[in-house]
Task: inverse folding
């Protein structure tokens, strides 16, 4: 039996606690005189023995529970011998190449390729293989084949990527692949599969649990370390942008003390440089302040250079010498207000309230909605219609096109709607209820508290409506808020790719107190944020991360990002690719442009910082990994002993046995402990 | 009501045993609806023929006048016997779970019986013992007998072990006349041993009554947690948990009491269990019944 995480055995020291509690902390009960103990003596022996036995059982249960717990954490496994390979049987090899960023260190990748090719050349007639690339995702580069040429050719298609790798996740995925290939330790007639993993054994790629490194279902794993055994140095840079200031942090990973030059590039041009003395295996900070960036100066890059170009740099990784920053300025939300009468009180209130919103800042244009279309609607992020019955046919048509292309609308009923009762854009009809007296009022009730347009109001909007309109709902309408008597007040209506929030009541002070209530501006802000959309995208990603991109025309929905522009400015998705929502991975570092409903949003994509530290897994740990994960010694160059059966060892966890045992012991402990408590509770009745 | 004086904790508050005994007896008599001043000792019992040496004051001259024969009026109070109290003063008698120790209670009982007997003109004697005889006052009807006896009771302190052998042996040697022997003890020793030690009293015409004085906690041991008990006589310690105290001990003490009763039966003695929280009248009434039976 072996332990995968023997350090957890230190948990056995916890046994000292119950021992101390039971034995060391033991004291006789308080003594008191009694006339004669003659009648107690014999029974006392029985009671005492029974009590002592129970006491010892309780102690044993507690010690055992703690021991099993510590033992479970140390992950005990049994080795079982299996006849693995004979000359007449097959063997399958999963040749896995680590493609993480650290593999791009000098000579490492070439070594990986050489080792893989040597392994392929050493394959026997009964062996098949598959090439697997372990980069941003674990990908099968070839199908199962015995064709060495095809395998070697596949290797030439692989190269290091700008991503990090978790060895635990990798082994788990490989295990699944082994099962899918028909190899299982449970199926004796399945093809035995061996994982041959070529990697630099980077310490930062080590998983949290050591046991994750041991394949459960594949027959074993052979680890082949690529790269130089001599010490390699690496320096990396990361940075932070804070208003007019960039703070760059240069880290020496195992490198000697040396001078480094840090350049700040704005839109690709060097803006400032600083020389830093970076201590050995330490870090140094360069601050670039008072940048006073222009609005279009949004693409920043911090670059690490050698101050003297002719000096041997000795930096193992080049990719982490650049750090990208997106200096997105918060663009104002551009809103077009189409009003029946721009001079009316409700329109003035609306315009003033919108302009007073700071986050997002809003720029409004106020236009007459009842005339011809003499404005470019596509230039606006969204359109607010005040009095929906006042729109001319031309404007209605333009709005319809705007909405179907993904533009969002806020449509508010006004005095004209109250009298006309129709909304030509959506065919909704409104009617005034005859049952209300002139001074009757209705409160508002939020029907969908989680809806983005009202989620900030915790279910209540404190406002009164006088003589509310009853809006006839159409198919697909979603009532977000209603009056107390059940009339829809705020309704979401889809129009093509666009959203239309309909407010079924006038904002005139004669019709509601909402426009003068404290809730008015926050409510408008909430609607603008909801309809303006896509303001929550982060500015930074790591290479290998994914985002959702595209439009789903069938489902009538769109992701926050419709298109991605690569650092070189080229669009990532073709038009046909844009017609479905899909995950897009950032493969390379740089500044990407994300096309959203509000325009282009820049994101900086940088290499994972964990890849910069090239320290190798300690030899002792590596030896343990090899010892536990390898099933047989397979020489990467020499052939496997063919023609005779080869004994292999597989590991079997005893977790499945220990867990029920632990539960049983905990139950026993509870019962015994409870009995003890019962005795203590036997107070005079 | 004067009967409240019979309660041990009330008696304990009185100054000395003499007062305690008086209070107890008067309380008892009032409780029994008897007149203190015209007590039972004046009640006519029988006539008997005059013998030489009899007090002429008791000759019934009316009968003499009618029959010319001298008869003496015999009253109940004059059927004098003697009472010897064997008082256990071993260490276990010093136990109490309340205010009154078993020894104190036994002393009250002994004093009350002595007082009662003295009023009946009986001779009273006392032997205080533990594992040996500590004090012995032979039975006498002299007037100073009672104060002497009460003094002896007051002066004794519980201590040492229990051995009935010595006092019983001494009793057999020193008390030749038949009478009442009241043994006041907790009788917590082995019943077989007690039987052996009390056996000599049998067949000597002695009327024996065993008063087994127990503390309420000895009868009904209740614990809220495990306790280590230390034997007051042997010093041995025993750990006792509440379960045992609640179940087994109470069975065992009842068995023991039954065994002591058996011992009493086999020695033709009466046996009475009294707890230190009970009023004295029960014990006194029992004693009187005994006394009456003896005549």
Result:
């Amino acid at each position: 039996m072996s332990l995968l995480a023997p350090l957890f055995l230190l948990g056995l020291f916890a046994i000292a606690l119950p021992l101390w509690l039971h034995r060391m902390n033991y004291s006789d009960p308080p003594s008191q005189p009694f006339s004669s103990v003659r009648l107690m003596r014999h029974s006392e022996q029985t009671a005492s023995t029974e009590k002592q036995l129970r006491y010892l059982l309780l102690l044993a249960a507690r010690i055992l529970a703690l021991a099993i717990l510590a033992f479970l954490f140390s992950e005990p496994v049994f080795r079982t011998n299996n006849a693995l390979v004979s000359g007449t049987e097959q063997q399958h090899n999963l040749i896995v190449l680590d493609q993480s960023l650290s593999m791009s260190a000098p000579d490492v990748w070439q070594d990986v390729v050489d080792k893989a090719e040597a392994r392929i050349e050493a394959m026997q007639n009964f062996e098949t293989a598959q090439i697997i690339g372990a980069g941003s995702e674990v990908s099968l580069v070839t199908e199962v084949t015995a064709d060495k040429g095809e395998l070697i050719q596949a290797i030439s298609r692989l190269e290091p990527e700008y991503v990090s790798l978790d060895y635990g996740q990798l082994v788990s995925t490989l295990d699944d692949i082994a099962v899918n290939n028909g190899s299982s330790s449970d199926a004796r007639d399945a093809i035995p599969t061996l994982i041959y993993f070529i990697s630099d054994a980077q310490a930062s790629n080590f998983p949290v649990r050591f046991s994750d490194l041991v394949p459960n279902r594949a027959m074993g794993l052979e680890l082949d370390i690529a790269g130089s055994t001599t010490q390699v140095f690496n320096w990396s840079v990361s940075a932070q942008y804070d208003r007019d200031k960039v703070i760059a942090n240069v880290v020496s990973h195992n490198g000697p003390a040396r001078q480094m030059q840090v350049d700040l590039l704005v839109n690709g041009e060097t803006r400032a440089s600083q020389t830093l003395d970076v201590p050995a295996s330490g870090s140094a900070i360069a601050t670039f302040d008072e940048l006073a960036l222009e609005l279009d100066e949004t693409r920043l890059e911090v670059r690490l250079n050698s101050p003297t170009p002719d000096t041997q740099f000795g930096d193992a990784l080049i990719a982490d010498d650049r750090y990208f920053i997106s200096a997105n300025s918060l663009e104002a939300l551009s809103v077009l207000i189409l009003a029946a009468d721009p001079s009316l009180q409700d329109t003035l209130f609306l315009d003033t309230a919108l302009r007073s919103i700071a986050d997002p800042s809003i720029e409004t244009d106020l236009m007459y909605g009842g005339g011809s279309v003499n404005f470019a609607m596509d230039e606006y992020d969204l359109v607010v219609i005040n009095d929906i019955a006042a729109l001319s046919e031309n404007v209605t048509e333009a709005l319809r096109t705007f909405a179907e292309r993904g533009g969002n609308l806020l449509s508010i009923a006004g005095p004209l709607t109250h009298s006309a009762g129709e909304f030509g854009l959506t065919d909704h009809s409104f009617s005034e209820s005859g049952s209300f007296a002139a001074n009757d009022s209705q409160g508002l009730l939020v029907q969908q508290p989680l809806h983005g347009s009202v989620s900030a109001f915790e279910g209540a909007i404190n406002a009164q409506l006088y003589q509310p309109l009853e809006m006839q709902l159409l198919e697909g309408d979603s009532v977000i808020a209603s009056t107390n008597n059940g009339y829809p007040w705020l309704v979401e209506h889809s129009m093509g790719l666009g959203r239309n929030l309909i407010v079924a009541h006038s904002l005139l002070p004669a019709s509601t107190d909402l426009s003068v209530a404290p809730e008015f501006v926050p409510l408008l802000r909430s609607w603008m944020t909801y309809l303006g959309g896509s303001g929550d995208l982060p500015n930074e990603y790591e290479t290998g991360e994914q985002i959702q991109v595209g439009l789903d025309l069938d489902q009538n929905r769109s992701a926050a990002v419709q298109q991605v522009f690569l650092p070189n400015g080229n669009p990532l998705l073709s038009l046909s690719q844009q017609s479905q929502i899909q995950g897009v991975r950032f493969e390379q570092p740089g500044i990407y442009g994300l096309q959203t409903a509000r325009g282009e949003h820049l994101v900086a994509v940088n290499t994972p910082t964990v890849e910069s530290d090239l320290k190798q897994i300690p030899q002792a740990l590596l030896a343990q990994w090899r010892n536990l994960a390898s099933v047989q010694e397979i020489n990467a160059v020499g052939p496997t002993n063919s023609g005779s059966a080869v004994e292999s060892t597989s590991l079997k966890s005893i977790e499945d046995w220990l867990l029920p045992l632990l539960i049983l012991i905990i139950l026993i402990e509870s019962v015994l402990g409870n009995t003890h408590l019962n005795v203590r509770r036997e107070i005079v009745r | 009501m004067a009967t409240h004086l019979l309660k041990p904790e009330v008696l304990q508050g009185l100054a000395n045993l003499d007062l305690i005994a008086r209070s107890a007896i008067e309380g008892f008599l009032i409780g029994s609806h008897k007149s203190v001043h015209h007590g039972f000792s004046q009640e006519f019992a029988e006539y008997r023929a005059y013998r030489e040496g009899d007090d002429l004051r008791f000759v019934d001259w009316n009968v003499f006048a009618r029959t010319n024969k001298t008869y003496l009026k015999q009253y109940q109070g004059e059927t004098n016997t003697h009472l010897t109290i064997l008082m256990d003063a071993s260490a276990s008698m010093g136990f109490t779970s309340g205010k009154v120790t078993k020894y104190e209670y036994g002393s009250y009982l002994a004093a009350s019986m002595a007082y009662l007997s003295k009023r009946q003109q009986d001779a009273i004697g006392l032997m205080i013992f533990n594992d040996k005889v500590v004090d012995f006052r032979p039975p006498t009807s002299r007037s100073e007998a009672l104060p002497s006896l009460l003094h002896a009771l007051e002066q004794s302190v519980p201590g040492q072990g229990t051995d009935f052998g010595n006092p019983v042996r001494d009793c057999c040697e020193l008390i030749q006349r038949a009478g009442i022997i009241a043994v006041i003890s907790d009788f917590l020793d082995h019943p077989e041993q007690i039987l052996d030690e009390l056996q000599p009293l049998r067949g000597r015409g002695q009327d024996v009554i065993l008063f087994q004085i127990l503390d309420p906690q000895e009868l009904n041991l209740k614990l809220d947690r495990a306790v280590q008990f230390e034997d007051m006589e042997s010093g041995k310690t025993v750990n006792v948990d509440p379960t045992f105290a609640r179940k087994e001990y109470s069975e065992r003490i009842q068995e023991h009491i039954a065994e002591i009763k058996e011992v009493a039966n086999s020695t033709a003695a009466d046996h009475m269990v009294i707890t230190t929280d009970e009023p004295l009248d029960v014990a006194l009434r029992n004693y009187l019944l005994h006394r009456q039976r003896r005549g």
The longest strand of chain A covers residues 76-85. Chain A touches chain B through 24 residues (CB under 8 Å). The first helix of chain A runs from residue 16 to 24. Residues 83-88, 183-189, 631-647, 679-685 of chain A have pLDDT under 50 and may be disordered.
